[in-house]
Amino acid sequence: MFSQRPSIFSSLPPVVKNLLVINILIYFAMALVPSIEATFSKWLALYYFTSPFFKAFQLFTYMFLHGGFMHLFFNMFALFMFGRTIEMTMGSQRFLFYYISCGICAALVQMGIFAIYIHNTASLLPPDIYEQFCRDGILTVQNAYNFPPSYWPELGKLNAFVNTPMVGASGAIYGVLLAFGFLFPNMPVYMFFIPVPIKAKWLIIGYFVLELLYGVSGSADGVAHFAHLGGMISGFVLLWYWKRKGVFNNHWFF
User: Fold this and answer.
1) What residues contact residue 247 under an 8 Å CB cut-off, 6+ apart?
2) What is the pLDDT of residue 116?
3) Residue range 46-51: average pLDDT?
4) Domains along the chain?
5) Contact 171, 63 (CB under 8 A)
6) CA–CA separation, 223 and 215 (whole Å)
7) What does the alpha-carbon distance between residue 200 and residue 97 come to, in Å, rounded to a whole number?
8) 145-157 pLDDT per residue, tens
9) CA distances to 67, 103, 106, 233 from 174, in Å
10) What's the pLDDT tens digit per position in 211-225?
11) Which residues contact residue 233 at a Cβ distance below 8 angstroms, ignoring those fewer than 6 apart?
12) Cα(123)–Cα(189) distance, rounded to whole angstroms?
């Protein structure tokens, strides 16, 4: 008799498998049912701390929502390609803690960067005007328009920082990528459109430098570059701590 080989999906470790399922199900539920999309966007996406829609649990839930199919695809593809190796190396419980921690730290770093700009800009407004702006600004975002430049040059940009929600698992995914480069620095990685393999450590360093350049330049591309950096930095701190504690016993480093 012929033995049946297990499918790729069934051979995935449990945390990666469940993260893939949850993220994909939520995306298609939001894409197909408008009421679900509206509810999840209001309650589960991450709003800035002074937004009337902000809730503390959004620091966790935002990483299960995505802004479009390609956003979902690239995040889940990276999780599938690298996350399974990291989970089998760390163990499922440690990997889940690592993934969620990177995602939350990524959000906090991005919010911290927002706070610097918002504080500097909002200081030009009287406190009562700023509070009213936070309340009224959310309506302009929901109705797909913003404050015109003639109203106040920086008000539209300020409103975008305060009342446009952040979504996506990218911060956690960048933590996973960092873990792969940290644990397997000399592992060759093949990238699209690059004919030769790149050692994982150089790939991760390259990602870090690019995200830093994009973030510092203030690129208005709608991507939370500092969240990516936050996921990588928090991941490095965790892995460095675990390595010093002998968690991996240097068995996994080559």
Assistant:
1) 94
2) 85
3) 88
4) 24-244 (1.20.1540)
5) yes
6) 9
7) 23
8) 555 555 555 666 6
9) 17, 9, 9, 9
10) 888 888 765 566 788
11) 105, 109
12) 47
